[in-house]
Design brief:
Length: about 120
């Protein structure tokens, strides 16, 4: 089964490892500072589990850094419209082998459905 979150998991793991090193810490000390269990932290560092937003914040607070330094998805400055969010959410559930043309068809279908409202 394809793990769609794997690239993000890898980036988050790399970021946490770099921050641990920069702060002259180890995994156990970060666990103590953040209040996140050693096993959960280990799962993040070994890309087994995608970190949740609460734990991103706990680590960010423990290391006194912005959340985006841990999870790059917090770095987005773009405010999406409701339509863009909807399309992005739908797109996240579509197989990786969808062509650009098929994706355009999906967007057009969404617009068509919306146009049929009374």
């Amino acid at each position: 089964m394809l793990d769609r979150d794997l690239p993000l998991k890898k980036e988050i793991a790399k970021n946490i490892k770099e921050l641990i090193k920069m702060n002259s810490l180890n995994q156990i000390k970060l666990s103590e500072l953040s209040g996140i269990s050693k096993s959960t932290l280990s799962d993040y560092l070994n890309c087994k589990t995608l970190i949740n937003p609460v734990n991103v914040e706990k680590i960010a607070n423990a290391l006194n850094v912005e959340k985006s330094k841990i999870d790059p998805s917090f770095a987005t400055n773009k405010v999406l419209s409701l339509k863009e969010k909807t399309i992005e959410t739908i797109a996240a559930h579509i197989d990786d082998d969808v062509t650009e043309e098929e994706m355009e068809d999906i967007k057009n279908y969404i617009d068509f459905i919306k146009s049929q409202r009374k």
